[in-house]
Every structure is written in structure tokens, then in C-alpha cells.
Amino acid sequence: MKRHAILFLVICLGYLCTLNATDFGSIRDGQVMLDMAVNLHQFGDLIVGYTLDQDKGIIPEVGGGGRYGVGYSLVEQIPILFVGPVERIFGEGSSNVLFPMTNMLVIGLTALLVALSLQAMGRPFRTGALAAAAFAFGTFVWPYVSYDFSEPVQGLCVAAAFFFSVRAAKGRPASRLDLAMAATALGFGVMTKPTLLILAPAFALYLWTGLTGPARRRALTFAWFGLTLAAWGLLIAGVNLHRFGSFLEFGYGRESGQFTTPLAAGLYYLLLGPNRGLVPYAPVALMLPWGLWAARRVDRREVILLASLLAALVLVIAKWWGWEG
């Protein structure tokens, strides 16, 4: 663990040398999520809009929650706690840097989980360190350190769900704590971005097929994943009801069914397009097919899981009318 701790610190140091707070708050998405975070901190509520009633005082507006998940706003509670002390010591505006520093830690932890996942799959530290460094400095997660988008938290949740799933599947017997943690990571991911719900079947199938023993014992063990994920589902449904007046409403309204982009066009835009394509902005991704093929014999089930997660996200987002978002 000492080597992994050093790896994490090195990655964070690299980010620390380049992060800035200039672009925080300049984009509407981030503004809405920060508004939710501030309202939660000040009023204990996740709704953005408020009205002033002479008799009842400040009351939240149903449907004023914005159309973004609340996960990132919850994470932003960490830097908000330190805004006051930092401003008092270093002056007005000095606390802005706390927000990209939080992203730095989130993405650094995600890179660390890449290395730890490979260790759980039996790979040497060197392999995990190279993969973590490639992720941290060879993809577009690097500039995300300095922007107030929820993608860093989403990435951390998916990486954590994968790590704990691998540990659970390879454990003999499977760790119930790892199963619950995998579901918790995935549940918080869905709370951050509802689209991540489409990853649940792939994780569930991977875990179920990795369990051993009689069917009854497998079912009881798997229940730690299933019931924990169900609990998160109930929590998210309650948050939706509070914010939008409906268990199943995530704030997107009619947009939730607008999968109108031609699939071939969406795939080109996402993977190869010069504007937002994966390959132009993360050329290390060109190694993915070779890497999966090379690992297919030793880690067949993990290869299937990774391919399933990637395919699910890419196919769904490629069809979305606003694929670029």
C-alpha cells in the first residue's frame, strides 16, 4: 500500500502544478450544481429555487431542483466547509481554489483505483502504476480537474464499483462488504448521473457468475449487492419526489426519451470526431482492443465486464440528441 500511496501523491502533485479556478462557475451546468450545494449547506435542502412567503418564510419550489444529479453537489460540501476559514485567513476569493483541489483528489483516487483494480486481478504494481499514469495524464480527465462538471465523481464511482466487484468476485468466499461497497459506489454514481443506471446489469451479471457454491448460498451472498443497490434506488426515488414531485422524474422531462442521433454518426462523433472524439483526445485508448484481447484468457470475465460497461455507455450516449453533453 505504501507504493500505491506514493503513486496517488505523485499524480495529485502533477495536477496541483496545473490546476486553476478560472473556469469554475463559468458554465451553467456547474453553476446549477454549485447552487444546489450552497442551498444544501445553508438551508439543508437540495432544491435550487426558493420563494419568499410572508407567513411561511423561505420555502422550496417543487421542480426547482435543476436537472442534474445531486451527487456532485454532495461532494462539493467538502470544499464549502473550508470556504469561511480560508477566506478569513487569505482574503476574499482565495477559497475558489478549494473546488479544483477537490476534483484533484477525486480524479487522483480514480487513478489509484485503476492501479488497485489491476492488483486485484493479479497484475504487478508496475502494470497498475503505468495504467494509472496513462489514465491521469494521457486522457482528458486531466483538464477536468479545473472544471466544475460531475464527470470526475462519475468516474470515481464507476472505478470504485469495478474495484469492489473484482475483489468480491475473486474472494473465496466473496466479501459481503465488497459487494455492498460495489453497490454503494454504483448507487452514488446513479445519484450523480442517472444514465449510469444502465451499468447495473453488467455488474450484477459479473458478480452473480463469479459466486460459487450452492444456489441458495450464492443468492444470500448476492443479496448484499442487490439489496444495497435497491436501498440506493429508494433513496434516489425519494430525492426525485422531493425535487420534482415524482419518483421517476430526474429533471430531464421529455428529453429523457430523445434518442434521435443516428447511431453511426453518434459513434463517429464520440470515438473519432475531431471535436470530442475519444481517440483524438485520449490516444492511449487505441491500446484498448489489444489490451482486452491480450487479457481475454486470464481475465475473461473482467474483459467481458469492461467491454459491456464501455458498450452500454457509448451506445446510449451516441443515440442521445445532445451526445456532445
Q: How does this model look, in words?
A:
The chain is mostly helical and 325 residues long. It is 64% helix and 2% strand. It has 15 helices and 2 strands. It has helices spanning 2-16, 28-43, 71-75, 77-90, 98-120, 125-137, 141-144, 151-170, 176-192, 200-210, 215-244, 263-271, 278-281, 288-294, 300-319; strands at residues 50-53, 57-60. A two-stranded antiparallel sheet has the order 1-2.
Q: Main traits of this protein?
A:
325 residues; mainly alpha; two-stranded antiparallel ribbon; 15 helices; 64% helix
Broad shape: globular
Task: Determine the number of helices (DSSP H or I, runs of at least 4 residues).
Answer: 15
Compute the CA-based radius of gyration.
Answer: 21 Å
Structural category is mainly alpha
Order of helices and strands: HHEEHHHHHHHHHHHHH
Give the strand line-up of the largest sheet: 1-2
Oligomer category: single chain
Main beta sheet: 2 strands, antiparallel
User: How many DSSP E strands?
Assistant: 2
- What fraction, in percent, of the residue positions are helical? 55-70%
Low-confidence segments:
none
Distance between the termini: 37 Å
Mean pLDDT: 90
How much β-strand is present in the residues? under 5%
Describe the secondary-structure layout.
Layout: H1 2-16, H2 28-43, E1 50-53, E2 57-60, H3 71-75, H4 77-90, H5 98-120, H6 125-137, H7 141-144, H8 151-170, H9 176-192, H10 200-210, H11 215-244, H12 263-271, H13 278-281, H14 288-294, H15 300-319
Antiparallel strand pairs: 1-2
Helix pairs in contact: 1-5, 1-6, 4-5, 5-6, 5-8, 8-9, 8-10, 9-11, 10-15, 12-15
